[in-house]
Amino acid sequence: MTRFYLPALLLAFSSFSALAADNQLSAEEQRNGWQLLFDGKDMSQWRNFKQQGLSKQWIIEDGAMKLNGKGGGDILTKAQYQNFDLKLDWKISEVGNSGIFILADETGQQIYSHAPEIQILDNERHPDNKLASHLSGSLYDLIASPAASHKKAGEWNQVRVLLEDNQLTIWQNGVQTVSVKIQSPQWQQLVAESKFANWPGFAAKSSGHIGLQDHGDVVWFKNLKIKELK
């Protein structure tokens, strides 16, 4: 005969109820000043790069923002952020490639002209998997993510990006992938040895938009939330 212990059941229920459902804030997150960037119903906080509207190729599917195929264009938040804590979940299609941008502006030709990118990739199949700093969770072409942070294409990944007084820390699936101070001597050396060495204005600004990349492949995002830091 199975016995149920009320205290244990109450504890389990309490732990479960403390977690927010997809695209919602928990009570603790609300108290701590978190804000949703996507509520699962509309993308009113987003627009295309250098445009006022949003392409019809960016759709909502099963509570996730989905780039439905090539031609949707890169998108960014309408608001800009300086010091922030950002969380989101992403899922990439097979042989897919995408990215998350921070400190994006619209003075360059492309969204990536000045914005550092957290890579999204099917690490197993996409041809841009030859360099470790091009794998998912990496600070693209600058700092490689550890293998322990990687998941297979088609699985949801959790990313956290913390930027405070130029100190950038990134986690993917609970594993720290990046810790660097932007514009520090270490940063300048990393940039000098990367493809961005001769890109004027790269990561030069202390604030900017959050961006999501159209690399021509289907990609999903959900649970996008941000907390501005004072």
TrEMBL record:
Residues 33-227 form the 3-keto-alpha-glucoside-1,2-lyase/3-keto-2-hydroxy-glucal hydratase domain. Pfam families: 3keto-disac_hyd. Keywords: Signal. InterPro entries: AL/BT2_dom. The keyword Signal applies. Residues 1-20 form the signal peptide. This is DUF1080 domain-containing protein. It comes from Rheinheimera aquimaris.
